[in-house]
# Entry
Amino acid sequence: LSICAVCLGRHPHRVVECTSPKTWDQQYDTFAKRKLKILLTKDGKRLCTKWQQSTGCHEDHMNHHLCS
# Structure
């Protein structure tokens, strides 16, 4: 199983819908949340994953998202 970007768990669950407020082991508050299957920081910035793609993220991107 892949690691959930929200709770960091590898247990079976729908990671695209994970809304856990704590990490899988209940040790820490999570950094991100899901809203309508979009990955956001707790303060509402969208997490950009374009840097993982061959085109990458542009240096002039808007400040409303955070490169992961």
About this structure: The beta strands are 32-35, 38-41, 46-48, 65-67. Residues 15-67 form one domain. The CA atoms of residues 31 and 62 lie 20 Å apart. The radius of gyration is 13 Å.
